[in-house]
Amino acid sequence: EIVLTQSPGTLSLSPGERATLSCRASQSVSSSYLAWYQQKPGQAPRLLIYGASSRATGIPDRFSGSGSGTDFTLTISRLEPEDFAVYYCQQYGSSPTFGGGTKVEIK
Amino acid sequence: QVQLVQSGAEVKKPGASVKVSCKASGYTFTSYGISWVRQAPGQGLEWMGWISAYNGNTNYAQKLQGRVTMTTDTSTSTAYMELRSLRSDDTAVYYCARCLWSGPSDYWGQGTLVTVSS
Lengths: 107, 118
Description:
The complex is a heterodimer of chains A (107) and B (118). Chain A has strands at residues 4-7, 10-13, 19-25, 34-39, 46-50, 54-55, 63-68, 71-76, 86-91, 97-98, 102-106. Chain A is mainly β. In chain A, strands 2, 4, 5, 6, 9, 10 and 11 form a seven-stranded mixed β-sheet that branches. In chain A, strands 1-3-8-7 form a four-stranded antiparallel β-sheet, with no helix packed on it. Chain A starts with a strand and ends with a strand. Chain B has no helices and eleven strands. In chain B, the strands form two sheets. In chain B, strands 2, 4, 5, 6, 9, 10 and 11 form a seven-stranded mixed β-sheet that branches. A four-stranded antiparallel β-sheet of chain B has the order 1-3-8-7, with no helix packed on it. Chain B starts with a strand and ends with a strand. The interface between A and B is medium-sized, with 25 and 22 residues.
């Protein structure tokens, strides 16, 4: 099983700042089968990024994904108030797994 | 528009079984699969498994093998997830999501809270 480790656990930032979230895999993620999801309290996760760097439908361009192999990054260029949430990475190869999540909170 | 609507909250005793439904609309049901993901209170997301709505092929998380069964009813565009021999640590919100095999989950149900308590 591929273990995904997300860091940091919590990111304290102000609106307008840049957020950089990391997701490291225990082994190479095939064909960049890496997604990022946003989850707000009491809501289902929402797909942001798939294929490591492709934005899902309707996702603002302040969200971007990068990386390959074992190291992946989600960047939010300028935090809006609605972006404060928990973010999960997922590898969706043959046995999908999720990372433990990064909480982006208001500083 | 794509929608996945799940059944309501359940309270079960340890050792019992639960069956959660997920009714899909707004797309061709058999062109996608359904994945099931759960989230224990205050915890992260756990992938449980996937079923093809086209041919019923399944892939279950190893830790749940033998306790979980996923099925679909193409006549009603509904997916089901049954979990048996429930334990207290099965208490969680259970989500269904649309996805292709080896694909991301692009639409999610609203979640179903399953509480296991004596």
